[in-house]
Amino acid sequence: MPFQFSNKDFNELGLMLGGNWSDSTISNMSCKDRTAYFVDFFYVSPRTAAEVYRDIQHPDLGENQIKKPDPREFLGGLYFLKKYPSKKAQAGFIGSSEKYGLPKAWKYVEALQALKEKKIRWIFDEEPYCNFQEYYFLTVDGVHFCVYEPRYMPSSGWYSQKFNKAALAYEIGLSVYHPNICWVNGPFPAGQNDMRIFKKPEGLMSKIPDNQRGIGDEGYVGEPTKLSTRNEFDSSEVKQLKRRAKARQETINAKLKSFGILNQVFRTTGKQRFAKHKAALEACLVLIQYELDNGTRKIMKV
Known about the structure:
By secondary structure, this protein is α/β, with parallel strands linked by helices.
């Protein structure tokens, strides 16, 4: 039976850790303020924290299962993703030595990443989603995140025109009519354009059925049988649908950039850089999807 920690307990512990406030100070806050502070420290609501805490104990996670999670260290993992503090600050937050502060945070990040198969998945072959068969059924966009250029692999291929520095690129897909992140692929050197990533053997192009279309921005011009972009021949109704669908996709990108670990230059270097960044990115997507599933956060309807 998994260890439980309630919404209320997480809220109180999170405010104590994040704000260093006394019990009396916390009790004098309004419910709205307590939740707002918690979200600022950890991105998710106390309700979502309790759900994720339960799920990281599931045996399906294999070697990433946390059998006896520590609520303080779990919140430390969420704090690490949201604020991306220094090694010293992370150790201080969970009351650990510098030697163990970051490893403990990464343990929980990798457990969150392991929930990807449950939360970030191709839903269109499942009930009830397979019954809709919408012509425009998903949007796709390439997102860049800054890193230090790998010294052992120096190349202009890491250069991102979006940031004017080295970055990693990911391909992210979102269902048009459902609040589901349904695809993520990467990382790739940011010098590769969106269409090149899309057309890779393991890319999204091979997943799109012949009788349906995805929606992309101008970076995806060239494969009209798979992706539809802005088109002067579109009806006003289709133009409006595409605008709203792409704006909806941008809200997911914005949510990702609200995590410090993705918004700041990623500090992990060496050969583990890509695996660690992938773990962080997918863990953040998992947290966003939890919030969409339980209604804590919403995205616009098309």
